[in-house]
Amino acid sequence: MKTIMIHEMPNHIGETVRIGAWLANKRSSGKIAFLQLRDGSGFVQGVVVKEVVGEDVFAKAKAIHQESSLYITAEVTVDERSSFGVELQVKDVEVIKEAVDYPITPKEHGTEFLMDHRHLWLRSRKQHAIMKVRDEIIRATYEFFHTNGFVKIDPPILTGSSPEGTSELFHTKYFDEDAYLSQSGQLYMEAAAMALGKVFSFGPTFRAEKSKTRRHLIEFWMIEPEMAFVEHAESLEVQEQFVAHLVQSVLKNCPLELERLGRDISKLEKIKAPFPRITYDEAIKFLHEEGFDDIVWGDDFGAPHETAIAEKYDMPVFITHYPIGIKPFYMQPHPERDDVVLCADLIAPEGYGEIIGGSERIYDYELMKQRINEHNLDESAYEWYLDLSKYGAVPHSGFGLGLERTVAWISGAEHVRESIPFPRLLNRLYP
Ligand code: 4AD
Ligand code: MG
């Protein structure tokens, strides 16, 4: 007999098959038991009828505890109401290991309890669906960049430089030297773009941020494309096409997951390029009109500001041309203004905040050197980086998309802690 997985069952209607599964939940009466089974690839209902399987198997099925591991032998039948359109008519049940007193029951649990049991919480339907959406976004990312002629490059994780400022660095020893965990691979990606033209990275990044919000993780994954001979405006076009591709891929390939998550897909269906653009100046003016008196030109936006701006649109929105004083050293100044830079943040709809930060990069050697010094960075750690503007420098642009914020937005998860398998948060390194 064939051992198959739940997602393959539509191809086995009418056959008797065997699956390895866990018991997610169970309902039973005197004559019939309904086993909610999961095997990682999906969920399916197994129907155990006492008259069919006999007293012994029925008694065994009724006694199984939640999350026990099983082999189930059953006939696959059609059930239009279920997710894969199938149901199992159980013939035999073999218990591999009983799970007694599984801590996560179908009743409601508090967040801290669930976070303490993240290693088990991942098994639940909602978390399973979010991980599938995350996987689809990862797949679609490689698809997008490889289709568009980008080369995947892996920047180092242990570094001596800090592209995004020094206040949030994870410090570590590197034998006798000081090192940091990478907060962004950007500077290395710039070097790679000068070698390979269009490149992208996809890896973990670390920020010792003291922020405890629904958008901040200490360890998160970032996708960082970098493009030689590409200026600010063209970079925004790549960004909107990339993000639209992610959303459309999830809609196409994760319909069951989005349904299980209760995601309003009509909101996602609208996400197509181009996205609206407003300047920082316009955003400040708009916020003042909306009654935000707490912000003045030169300040960075907080979550309430970003949300208010995002609410004007049913698309992600680019905020462009931020003041030079609140952005990193490497951003190219505006050609006609010395107070703003050629950059943009992409703000997701529905309050999910900034999902992309990007800019055109300085490629003038003297200016780059000056900016490194103005930011009080140790020039010796950036000597290699200065070489890029010394030897055949060209206009170039790049950006970084935060994977977890994007997963949270597309799947509708309230908090980024649910969009990564094992979140690292302020005060949480367990499990
Ligand atoms: O805006 P950021 O800091 O930009 C950079 O790091 C650039 N060097 C990227 C580049 O141009 N190559 O971070 C980029 C994105 C943010 O828009 C956000 O989506 C995500 O990374 N991000 C975080 N996600 C979760 N938790 C945090 N603490 C995050 N910090 C940034
Ligand atoms: Mg940013």
TrEMBL record:
Q: Name one Pfam family in it.
A: tRNA_anti-codon
- In short, the EC number is 6.1.1.22
The alphabetized UniProt keywords are: Aminoacyl-tRNA synthetase, ATP-binding, Cytoplasm, Ligase, Nucleotide-binding, Protein biosynthesis
Keyword Zinc recorded = no
InterPro entries in the cross-refs = Aa-tRNA-synt_II (IPR004364), aa-tRNA-synth_II (IPR006195), aa-tRNA-synth_II/BPL/LPL (IPR045864), Asn-tRNA-ligase (IPR004522), Asp/Asn-tRNA-synth_IIb (IPR002312), NA-bd_OB-fold (IPR012340), NA-bd_OB_tRNA (IPR004365)
Q: Which reactions is this enzyme annotated as catalysing?
A: tRNA(Asn) + L-asparagine + ATP = L-asparaginyl-tRNA(Asn) + AMP + diphosphate + H(+)
Question: Which one of the record's GO molecular function terms can you name?
Answer: asparagine-tRNA ligase activity
Task: Please give the chief subcellular localization of this protein.
Answer: cytoplasm
**All copies of domain Aminoacyl-transfer RNA synthetases class-II family profile, residue ranges:** 131-431
Give compartment(s): Cytoplasm
Its quaternary organisation is: Homodimer.
Q: Which family does it belong to?
A: Belongs to the class-II aminoacyl-tRNA synthetase family.
Output this protein's name: Asparagine--tRNA ligase
List the source organism: Sporosarcina oncorhynchi
The major lineage groups are:
Bacteria, Bacillati, Bacillota, Bacilli, Bacillales
